[in-house]
Each structure stands twice: as structure tokens, then as C-alpha cells.
């Protein structure tokens, strides 16, 4: 869909439309989520295309500079040839040929001055363009590294978000609170049952049982004492 939009509306307008859709859906770039990474990837692709276009333009400049330089060097050689012709004609006494060759030297010198200025200007343009291309390529590599770091950070953020969701779902604090409530309820129930048992017991019956136990204990003690005392024989 994005490619279709970019093809119909152009890269700049298409990116604005896609960004507007993200905003309408409530997922702006500033959210720092997956949309931010996608926008960064699209921007990086645009920068790569721009750098490629710049590289093509620099190559064209270099080619033009090389042609101008070659033309200048060819003219220099041509002027040297005319100079040699003028010298040869002068030595041979051919005044007319010498003057013709020297006039060509002068005409070539005039052209050479213009060609030299053009070559020097082209050289400055080429060096400036090459320097810009180097800077843009360096920035592009830095952005590639940043994008890789962004993806790694996005994965970490997602993992942390998943951990937070798991922690919220487990709700350990709520479970502890429920456990403590259950424990307190059991303890209260135990106290109530003990209190109920104590209240349901008749005090009179309890006292009577204690007295009976005391009487039995006394009788048991008395009889044990009898067993320990020596037996007396009856009188004859």
C-alpha cells in the first residue's frame, strides 16, 4: 500500500499521507513504538536513494572534468606542436610558414587560458561534490547503525512490556492479600468454636464431675495405703 501511495503521490507527499494515517490511528512517530522504527526505515531508504543520486551526479561531474582536462592537455600539446613548427620554419628561412605557425600558437594560448579556468573550476566542483558524497555516505552508515540500535531497543522495550503484562496478570499482591484473608477467617472460626464449646458446657455438671473425680482419687489413695500397711493377725 505504501509503495502505491508513493507511486501515485510522490515520495514526499506519500510519506506525509502515511504519517497522517498513523496519527489518525493514534500511533504517532513520537510514541516510540513499531511505527517509529518503520518511519526510520522509510527515511533511511529515502536517504539511500538520495545518496545514490548524488553519487550519480558526482560521477557525471567527474566525467565532465576528465573530458575538459583531456581537452586542455590536447590543446597544450597542439600549441607545443605549433611552436615547434614556427621554430623549424624560422630556421629554414620560411618566414611565411613561421608567422602562420606562430599565429596559431597565439590563438591556442588564448583558448588555453579559458580552458584552464574551466578545468580549475570543474576540479573545484568535483572535489566539493566528492567531499559532500563522503559526508553523506558517512552519515548514511551512522543512520544504518542507529536503525539497528533502534530495532534492538524496540525488541527490548517489547520484552519489557510483555513482562509488565505478565506481572500485572499474575497480581501476586492480590493473591497474598487473599491468602491472608483466608488465614484470618480460619483463625476467627477456631476462636468462635472454642468459645462456643466453653459456653455450651454446664458449670454445675463440670463441678460435680470434678468432685467425683476427687472422691475416686481419695478412695484409690486410701486403698493403696492399706495395701502398703502390714497386716495384723487376729487374736487367739
The total count of helices amounts to: 6
From the spread of the alpha carbons, the general shape counts as: rod-shaped
Distance between the termini: 137 Å
Flag low-confidence runs.
20-31
- Please state the average pLDDT score: 75
In sequence order, what are the helices and strands, one letter per element? Answer: HHHHHH
SS strand fraction: under 5%
Percent of residues in helical segments?
over 70%
- Sheet having the most strands: none
Tell how many strands the DSSP assignment holds: 0
Class from helix and strand fractions = mainly alpha
**Alpha-carbon Rg, integer:** 55 Å
Textual characterization of the structure:
Helix content is 89%, strand content 0%. The protein is built from 6 helices and no strands. The longest helix has 76 residues, at 95-170. The model is unreliable at 20-31 (pLDDT under 50). The protein has 236 residues and is mostly helical. The termini are far apart.
What is the strand and helix layout of this fold?
Blueprint: H1 2-9, H2 11-24, H3 34-91, H4 95-170, H5 172-200, H6 203-228
Quick take:
This protein has six helices and no strands.
Which key phrases capture this entry?
mainly alpha; rod-shaped; 236 residues; 6 helices
Amino acid at each position: 500500500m505504501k509503495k502505491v501511495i508513493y507511486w501515485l503521490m510522490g515520495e514526499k507527499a506519500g510519506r506525509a499521507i502515511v504519517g497522517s494515517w498513523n496519527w489518525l490511528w493514534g500511533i504517532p512517530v513520537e510514541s516510540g513504538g513499531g511505527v517509529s522504527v518503520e518511519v526510520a526505515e522509510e527515511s533511511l531508504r529515502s536517504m539511500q536513494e538520495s545518496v545514490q543520486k548524488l553519487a550519480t551526479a558526482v560521477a557525471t561531474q567527474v566525467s565532465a572534468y576528465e573530458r575538459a582536462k583531456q581537452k586542455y592537455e590536447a590543446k597544450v600539446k597542439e600549441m607545443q606542436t605549433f611552436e615547434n613548427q614556427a621554430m623549424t620554419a624560422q630556421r629554414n628561412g620560411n618566414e611565411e610558414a613561421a608567422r602562420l605557425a606562430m599565429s596559431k600558437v597565439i590563438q591556442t594560448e588564448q583558448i588555453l587560458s579559458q580552458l584552464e579556468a574551466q578545468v580549475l573550476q570543474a576540479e573545484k566542483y568535483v572535489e566539493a561534490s566528492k567531499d559532500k558524497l563522503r559526508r553523506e555516505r558517512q552519515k548514511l552508515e551512522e543512520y544504518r547503525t542507529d536503525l539497528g540500535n533502534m530495532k534492538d531497543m524496540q525488541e527490548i522495550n517489547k520484552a519489557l512490556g510483555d513482562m509488565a503484562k505478565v506481572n500485572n496478570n499474575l497480581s501476586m499482591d492480590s493473591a497474598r492479600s487473599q491468602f491472608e484473608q483466608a488465614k484470618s477467617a480460619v483463625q476467627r472460626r477456631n476462636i468462635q468454636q472454642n468459645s462456643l464449646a466453653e459456653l455450651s458446657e454446664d458449670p454445675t455438671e463440670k463441678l460435680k464431675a470434678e468432685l467425683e473425680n476427687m472422691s475416686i482419687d481419695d478412695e484409690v489413695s486410701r486403698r493403696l495405703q492399706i495395701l502398703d500397711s502390714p497386716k495384723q493377725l487376729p487374736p487367739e
